[in-house]
Structures are given as C-alpha cells and as structure tokens.
Amino acid sequence: MNEKERKRLYATVSKPARYTGGEFNLPDFNKPGALRFCFCFPDTYEIGMSNLGLRILYHMLNEREDCMAERCFMPWIDLYEKLVSEHLPIVAIESGDELTAFDVVGFSIQYELAYTNVVAMLKLAGIPYYAKDRGEEYPLIIAGGPCMANPEPFADFFDAMTVGEGEESMMQIVDVVKEGKQKNWSKEVVLDKLSEIQGVIIPSRDKAVYDGDKIVSFTRIVKKAVVQDFDKAYFPTKILLPNTEIVHDRGVLELYRGCSNGCRFCQAGFYYRPLRARNLNTLCTFGEKLIKDTGYEEMSLSSLSTGDYPKLKELIEHLKTAGEGKTRLSLPSMRVDSFESVFAEEARKSSLTFAPEAGTDRLRAVINKNITSEDIEKSMISAFKLGYSSVKLYFMIGLPTETKEDLDGIADIVKTIIELYKIHRNSGKNLSITVSTSVFIPKPVTPFQWERFISREEFEEKLVYLREKLRMRGVHYNWHDYETSYMEAVLARGDRKLSKVIVKAFESGQIFDSWSEFFHSEIWKKSAIECGIDLNEYVKERDVSSVMPFEYIDCGILRSYLEEERKKAYDETTTKNCLQGCNACGANKLGRCSLCC
Amino acid sequence: MLLIKFKKRYPASLMAHLDVLRSTLRGFTRAGIVVKRSEGFNPHFLVYFTPPLPLSVESNAEYMCVDTEMNARDFIKAFSNQTVKGLDIVSVHELKKNPNVAGIVTYSDYRVYVDLTEEQKKIIDEVKESDSLSIEYTQKDKLVQKEVRNLISDIYYDEDGLFLRLSSGNNNLRVDRLLNGIKGLNLKFNLYDIVREEQYTGDTDLIPLYKLEEYEK
Q: Coil, strand, or helix at residue A386?
C-alpha cells in the first residue's frame, strides 16, 4: 500500500499514529536481498508495543545483516471495519507491504482471548486460516509466545510453532528459512529442517494419537527452548519509541526469568523455569544505556517476583543516580513479604498494590502463596507509616477447596487494614481500598491443571456474598466477569477440535475477545454448537491418569512433581521457595537454575 | 531561550500534539539538552508550542520555544538526529526572552493541493472581491454561523491549488472549516492536502516567527 493510500486510510481513524510507523530508533531497512520477517501481534499497537518479548526479538532480528523484521498489529475496530468494507489488506507498519510479501510471518500469541484476532489478521491478509490449505506461494506462518504452553486450539493455523524462549530458536529458524530460500527448498523440506531445532513444533506432524476420544500417545515430544546463559542473552536498549502513548510507556529491565515461589495456580511461575538471573553489573549497564538511548524517565524492573532478586537494593541504588537522578523506578510484581520500606520509599506514594490471592492462611497454603496474615499486616503498617493511603488488593475466587470462610477472610483482611490505618496513618487523606477478584482458571503446566473451573451459579453466589461483605466505607470492589474467564478456561486446556470453533466464532463476528465490550459469549456458544462441540467438557475436572492434549510439550517440569504438588495442595501443605533449596521440579534439566541450584 | 522552526510532515502529521511534546522531550533527554523546569509540586519542562494543527494537516512552519542555556548551534548539533520521521528542524534562533509564541501568532499561510474547476475558481475570486463571507459549521454538535471575511487576509489559486492567509492563534479560522463552509464551492479535499507554510505575528506588517530574533534587536 503506497503512502498516499495509507494517508487516506489513517486520516479518519482514531489514534492513527498506531499505524504510521516512523518511530525513533527504527532499524536500518536498507538491506537488499535480506530475509523478510513480519511480526504479527493479535492485539492493538498499544499492547503489542509494550510487550518485552516482541521488543527483544524485533531488534535482535533487525541487527542481523541478512534479515529485516517488520511489525503488524491488529487494527482497532474503526480501521478494521474500513479495511473489510473497502476490501483492503492489512500491511506491515514499516514498508506498507502486504503480509504475503514476506518470507516468514510470525504471530506472538500472549493470551487465549486473542485467538479470534489471529484468524482476523490472517483473513485481512488474504491468507487461508489452515496450514493445510496454504501452498508454496504463501509465507511460512509461525507462532510463539506464552500460549505455547498449550498451542493445540490454534495449532492447525500454523506451519510451525516455537515453544519457549525465542532468542536462540528464532535465529535458527531464520537461518533455515534463509538457506531454504537460497536452495529453493519446498515448504516440506523447510519444515523438516525446522523440526530439528529445539522448541519447534510442526503441528501437521507433531500431534496426539487418539483411541476414540482418549489420547494414548503423541507422535513426538518437543522440548521447550531455553536460553542457557541468560546473563549474556540479547537485550536491546535502542528500542523503538512509540509515537503514541502505549500501555507500558517506559523502559523495561528484565531482571530474571522463572519464579522461585511456585504458586500452584500460576502458569508463568512454572512455564518460565529454570530460574535464571542477570548479574547486577549487566543490569546496571543495560539500565544506564536504556535511559540514554530512549530518553525515558521511568523504568520498570521486571520479573515474575521482583522482590526476590537478590541484589535489588543495590540495583535500585545504582539506577537512582542514572539519568541525572531523574529516573523513576517502578517495581511491579512485588510479593507482600518482600515489601520493605526501602523500596516503597523510592516509589511514588500513590497506591500500593498487593495480591494475597486468597482470604485465609489455609487457602494460601493450598495455593502455595507463602504469605501469612501477619506478613500482610506488617507490610501495611510500614506502608502507612511511610504515608501511603491507597491500597489495591487482588484475590481469586473459585480456587480449589475454597469455602465461605475463605471469602470471609477477604473481608477480614480489608477490615484489619482499615483498623491498622487508623493507628499507623501518616497521611491526611482518607484510606482508599480497592479489592479486585478474578476467577481461578486452571492452566496447563501447573499443579492445578487438572482442576475444574467453577460454574456460573457458584460464581454468582460467591460474588453476591462478597459484595455484601465488602460493603464498607472507602472500599471499592470490582470483579472480572465470568463469561470471558469461562472462554479463557475452555481455550487454556483445549484441543485441536477447538480451531474450527475459533474460526466459526470469528466468522460470526467475534474479534477482540479480551475487550469486554466486544466479547459475545452467545457467539462462542452458538459456534460450538454448530461445530458439534460441548464447551462444558473443557472446563470439567480432569482425571490425573488421563493424558492432556498439550503433554507432548516438555516444559521441563516433571508430571510427577505437578501431581505431588497437587496432593500437597489438598493436604494444605506448602512447598518452600526454590531460593531456600531446590525442590527438584525438573526444570533444571533444560538449563541450570542459576539462582537456586 | 531558543525558538525552533520545524516541519511536521507525514507520518508525524498524524501524531497528536501531546505525543509530539512527549517525543520532543525524550529527544531533549537523549541529546543531553538541559531544559529548565517549572517550579512547584509537579515540575514540567519549559517548552512552548504554537497552536497545534488538526491531526493530518501537514506543516512546513511549526514553532516551539525551549527555555535552555544552550546556544542555537549546539542545539542543532545535538537535536537534529533525535527527532521522529516527519519532524525536521528547519532553523533555530536565539531569543532574549520568551515571546509567548502561542499568544502572538496572528496569521498563517496555507497551501491546499487540489485541482480546481473553473466554477470553483470563480467562487474563490468572488470571495476575494467580497467584503463579507458567512460560513456555517458544526462545533460541539451545534451549528454555528460566523462572519469570517475579516479573518481572511488573502486567498488565491495557482497551478498548485489554493493559497490562503488566514487569521490564526486567538482568533483562529480553520482552513477545512472555511473551505467546507463556502456556499457552492463543493471542494473535495482531504486534511492531508493542506500544508501550513508559515506563521506570522503582527496585524498589518506581518513578521514571520523565525524573524522574531531580528525584531527583538
């Protein structure tokens, strides 16, 4: 699409800067003959540009002399409708070329509710949805991202998929495709070679073997790709600076991968193991460079549990002085027990966010969230003494073994916080507490992967109960709705039969599922019925002896470890943090846990 | 105090004003340009812009004032490669004091790159000759009628399309509003066909803003 046409299209849509490109730090695209790669992100520019994985891979591929990587995001509804009505294709931001002009199109799939957008983008690009329907004339369509923990619902759409970390496997994929292009290999030969790379799944070949409705085995086990020396892993500091405000418009410094806590509901905590940290010196250097290369005045210290980084205090001390001392640091993902006055003093005293996840010490033991009511109280006291007056609390409802007492526990925590504020306040403001609840969704690669997802009736009963309990002055309660969580639960443990439901839902008008205003549960239900599929089957409790559709992916964590953890959950027994000693989960067979082993 | 004249062409023409501001400030930080900040609880950079254009309209003459000790030469050297695609520095001028660019702008020149029919040319000639021109437009869902002839300093056509010199700043007349409001003109144009070519201060003797430096002397 030429510039004039793009100008015309973008002139009348909201926030056109999401589509125009031209951002600062754009890589050099003057590489004649280079392999052309297009990263597709099935959500808006604001969300995609905030994604650290995309940032890393985009710049890494563009640093190669023989590769040019571009970007394409799902257009927002106004442009989407315009493209559909005018029969125009989506194009890559940098060149304005259609996706069919690329050698490789790589989708980054971050969450289950983006699956219809994947189909929508393929449709807009004029690319058949199913890999089996695409001939040699189409680019290689691949996928990666956290949803690879169970890629089965969308596996049929892709020629190849990469499970695990992309820093090494993406480079190898580019090498193979480049060689294939030079030697004029057929797609089948390219797939042969790709299947030799660690972490690469070829969905047409790697699949479950069924006996009736039951999975009895798999054609192949695929090992997740893991960066072995994380400290030396590629990390871009000259990153693209968006021309419009994005969700996380700040520098991001990745401290470590994996998580030592082992909360039993948390997919990321298990999926990203082994635990590997960057050295303090490396982080200090990256941090300084990031500020210098971007001009950002805010930097986020990112990981799954930032408070667990052993040298956090030193890192904060160092970064405070970088950027003429004007850099603000944000510390997301802090556990309640890792909250120390020193960190909070550095931050803006706007609002404190904690996620106790469950209301009682008993249920927290079940989910292995190793914090006690006492920990929460201690943290609150120190925060209030520092002048904080606003608290956000996150909980989950529908967790295994949850009872009314656990819901009462949520209200009790809130009441305690109110009382503590009266005694320890150091601010003239009234206390504001926001309680948010989400619904527990059983996810693959967790000890709770066999659990059921609660019914709508149970959800409503819990909701009504909690709303009544949390009716207190200064307390605001909001909750994640049931229907989107239900679909997420269906897709999280789904199999390949669901791909036709996804296509049907899209063809019936469903896109942007994760945006509640565009989510229509009736479309999904109708689509499932038309495809002869009962969605309720996917949210039921699974028998531990049955094989689940994603179990051909070896994420490192042993099945026996997950089973053992589940047993411990029902016994209300906790498992120690990996930093206190290895729990032998199995992850270190894919790479050494540098923080604990 | 530095006065910077810059271009805002595609794709930067589709950047909202606040995004241009944010991007510029990050550029200053990267370039090591120390800009003074306001005092108070939430200090902000002392940077001032001329009134922003509607999204999509392009410009060869946007202005901003930057409160800094740096001289023009060093500024150009440090900042010229720190801008996003479409934002290009034209010139930098040293001023003794803050001229309040947003407040002193009185007129702007625009080019509208369109093909005119004979009928349309005739209507433009009539507007030029006439003493009054009343246009209608919708503002905040309300139909507004306004006499605007006194806000048009000049209007003519040539082989490139239309040229207009319109009142700007505190008594602003938008090009698109004017062209859509002239009865019978029926001119088909897009906002991106419009380019702001210059901005002036003064009432009768117009001074382009980039000459403020000489005017100050």
A: helix
